[in-house]
Design brief:
Chain lengths: ~280, ~550
């Protein structure tokens, strides 16, 4: 009996990496008016942000149905499954997975609320998958995933809070709305929600603060710089981190379409993993 | 009324009998009369004291601040206390709550020190009086973290020292030498503070102390000068700011008319309630006031033109709902702000309570305390946004039962930097520390017209000339705001990619402000600029850079 890892498309794991670690990714759906796209399957980041720019209406998202999960869980009927998903507070995906797991066989399926999103979630999924490849058991790996969640930090800045607010995911960052002065938010994702950290006056300052705060996280071993339509900024950030921490792994990735719906273009984020 | 031990009354007026000089005690009523007389004299000399202010900026309010502080003190005595210790204690308490501006705060500490020294005594003999004046001086010095000689501190100190030299001369004698020493100390202040010498004035706060002591002496010997006639506008100003508690109905409307007199309307509206905001021009005036009788405000407005955009809200119920919605608000902020647009900017950033302040109308300690009480949180940070309000804010934080910290912001841009640095989920300690760090990173420049001819920092300044201030120092002058602002920006170390925020005041129209921004852009191509309509009074432009 093997242990399988399942996640959803909000994890933003590069497809090649997911494939090499046998991670099954269940896509959420992106809606542009009446058009629908399977996240990461029928639309990628570049296409999404292009469409966003030209679209009159704001896109929406919906979670995979319980049926989608059931299909996957049944495909791996002979295996144990650890299904790690985007924060419950941010998406109904966890619910769909839980319902499906209950129907399939809840003994062999562990559904985990990561309380994270995007590469934060992705890190947990990838690390757990690696441990499984290295031979960890189902129960050990489930515990490992939970512990890993606590070692992940997410700091980010958005060009505007508009998408987050209109998408209803602004959470505690609500406190940052309403300014008549130009401000850029510095946010974190904690306990499954977006939290306000600081407001600054310029984008440059905001990115600077995201770097500064990520740089003081103790025992950090790995940094992932994620962005939406801000490749240059991301590369500058990555270089800064590489220069400051020569021994540590620094990766760059793009935020997927579903995350893009809420972040909007111009987001820059750093997901940091602490050592065990 | 002063009484000889034999019971013979000494009448007020110019007649002084030799018996006055052997007066042995000052009882409660006499002490109160002396203090009332001091207050009246301060009122009489208010403008003169205001004009002594070294800086030719709309900040000539030492006289007003000390007067309002004193008035608040006297008001506290209205419960007819009987004994000297009662009067002193009431005066000290009232002045503490009503303390405005640094000079007001120091005055309140002088009264506090005096009251503490005479505590428990029904009447004061020469010994107690002189001890009281000595203690008053010590308390004044304690109130200031960096005491500077040549200010009101020197004056009260020298008065106290003179008073303690020889108490055998009786209470009147002690008061006389104290008052004379004060007067001499005032005349000497330009020798102690070069800025005074350069401006050709004596210290305003010191003059205020001297006026008070002189009046107390004259009252004691029965030489009571009739009080000056108080003009209507002065009554309106003092009335509102001492008693305003900001409740009632939030009443707002626009008056559309012709030839509207904004200043006149403001004066009238201020007499109707508190938290007054009146802005506009001869054709359209916006009125905002918190009053217990909104009908009065509307009746007033309707006589001047047609009313539009009328909004009336019950503040009490609004407040209760607000508290309900923000019950678990962790940390609240009180900011002192003057100017519609600036108020909006602060409110937009989530500041909970705004207290009107600014250079000429410094809020009292009690007004700040009330704002703290209104906040829907047990933890409150106060942002004074003006160096002359910092001490008052400290008093307010002590008066309040909540957990209050003052972040010593000295300007609007510093206040904004502080608000931006707030972590809504952090503790009051970590936030006040983060805010203190943030305010260092923003620079402030203020631009206005000189209110009088003066000489400061080796510069001759003519009334009406445009001046640039940085950290409360005048550092250049000019003939038009565009070039003056550019000159000032050249002198501070701007780096590439910095952001400048230009707040234009209520006396500036948008087009002028926009052309000033173009001038700045032309001189500093890599500078990011944001233009905000602050509609602040007194400073045509406030420019921050970070």
């Amino acid at each position: 009996m093997t242990v399988r890892i399942v996640t959803d498309s909000t994890s933003d794991i590069p497809p090649g990496l997911a494939a090499s670690l046998d991670i099954a990714v269940v896509p959420l759906i992106v809606h542009f008016g009446t058009e629908t796209f399977k996240d990461g399957v029928e639309i990628n980041s570049e296409q999404f942000f292009q469409k966003l720019q030209n679209s009159q209406t704001l896109p929406r998202t919906s979670q995979p149905s319980a049926g989608e999960f059931l299909k996957i869980y049944n495909r791996f009927a002979k295996d144990q499954i650890i299904s790690i998903h985007v924060a419950q507070k941010l998406s109904g995906t966890f619910n769909s997975a839980s319902i499906a797991a209950h129907q399939a066989d809840k003994e062999r399926i562990s559904v985990v609320d990561s309380r994270l999103v995007s590469m934060g979630l992705g890190i947990v999924v990838v690390e757990t998958a690696k441990k499984i490849k290295a031979g960890m058991s189902f129960s050990e790996a489930s515990q490992y995933a939970e512990a890993c969640i606590k070692r992940v930090h997410c700091l980010l800045t958005l060009d505007t809070l508009e998408y987050l607010q209109k998408g209803g995911r602004i959470g505690k960052a609500q406190a940052f709305l309403g300014s008549t002065l130009g401000i850029k938010p510095v946010l974190s994702v904690k306990e499954g929600e977006v939290h306000p950290v600081e407001r600054v006056r310029t984008r440059a300052k905001a990115i600077e603060r995201v770097i500064e705060m990520s740089s003081v996280i103790p025992k950090a071993t790995r940094y992932f710089v994620m962005h939406s339509a801000a490749q240059n900024d991301a590369e500058v950030v990555a270089k800064r981190l590489r220069d400051s921490f020569p021994g540590k792994e620094v990766g760059i990735g793009t935020l997927g379409p579903v995350i893009g719906v809420y972040a909007g273009p111009g987001a820059v984020a750093i997901a940091t993993l602490e050592a065990e | 009324m002063a009484k000889k031990p034999s019971g013979q009354k000494i009448t007020s007026g110019a007649r002084k009998t030799s018996a006055a000089y052997t007066l042995e005690f000052i009882d409660g009523p006499l002490l109160l009369a002396m203090l009332r007389s001091a207050c009246d004299s301060l009122e009489l000399n208010q403008d003169e004291i205001n004009s002594l202010n070294v800086f030719p900026v709309p900040d000539g309010d030492t006289g007003t601040n000390m007067l309002l502080t004193m008035k608040s003190a006297i008001k506290e005595c209205e419960a007819a206390p009987k004994t000297a210790t009662d009067v002193a204690a009431a005066i000290a308490k009232g002045s503490l709550m009503g303390a405005r501006g640094n000079s007001g705060v120091i005055l309140s500490q002088i009264l506090h020190g005096f009251a503490a020294a005479v505590r428990g005594h029904d009447k004061l003999d020469a010994q107690l009086l002189s001890g009281g004046l000595g203690a008053a001086s010590k308390a004044a010095y304690k109130a200031v973290s960096k005491p500077v000689e040549g200010t009101m501190l020197t004056v009260i100190r020298e008065a106290g020292e003179a008073a303690q030299l020889d108490t055998s001369i009786g209470v009147a004698g002690v008061m006389k030498v104290a008052s004379q020493a004060a007067e001499q100390a005032v005349q000497n202040t330009p020798n102690l503070l070069p800025a005074l010498k350069e401006a050709g004035v004596v210290d305003s706060g010191g003059q205020g102390v001297s006026v008070l002591l002189k009046a107390m002496y004259r009252c004691l010997i029965g030489d009571v000068t009739p009080s000056a006639k108080i003009s209507a506008s002065k009554t309106a100003i003092s009335g509102v700011h001492i008693t305003d508690d900001g409740y009632g109905y939030c009443t707002e409307f626009f008056i559309e008319g012709r030839g509207l007199d904004v200043e006149g309307i403001r004066t009238q509206v201020m007499a109707l309630g508190g938290s007054t905001l009146v802005a506009g021009d001869s054709a359209l005036v916006k009125v905002h006031v918190h009053t217990s009788d909104p009908g009065k405000a509307l009746s007033f407005g309707v006589q001047l033109g047609s009313l539009k955009g009328i909004k009336i809200d019950n503040i009490d119920s609004q407040h209760k709902e607000y508290i309900k919605a923000h019950k678990d608000k962790h940390l609240a902020i009180v900011a002192v702000v003057l100017g519609d647009g600036l108020v909006e900017a602060f409110r937009g950033l989530g500041v909970d309570e705004i207290v009107e302040g600014g250079q000429t109308m410094n809020p009292s300690a009690d007004e700040l305390r009330l704002a703290v009480e209104r906040c829907p949180s047990e933890n409150v940070i106060i942002l004074p946004n003006n160096p002359n309000v910092i001490m008052t804010a400290n008093i307010a934080s002590q008066l309040s039962t909540k957990s209050v910290k003052v972040v010593p912001t000295k300007s609007i841009p510093q206040g904004i930097a502080a608000v931006l640095a707030m972590d809504p989920e952090g503790s009051i300690e970590s936030n006040s520390s983060a805010m203190a760090d943030a305010i260092i990173k923003v620079g402030t420049l203020e631009f206005c017209k000189a209110t009088k001819d003066t000489s400061v920092n080796g510069m001759r300044i003519d009334k009406g000339q445009l001046i640039a201030l940085s950290e409360d120092k005048i550092f250049c002058t000019g003939d038009d705001f565009g070039s003056l602002i550019c000159e000032a920006l050249h002198r501070v170390s701007l780096k590439d990619g910095m952001l400048a925020t230009v707040y234009f005041g209520k006396d500036v129209n948008k087009k002028s402000a926009e052309s000033v921004v173009s001038r700045i852009k032309a001189s500093f191509p890599s500078l990011e600029i944001e233009l905000i309509n602050g509609s602040q009074p007194h400073y045509e432009y406030i420019v921050s850079y970070e």
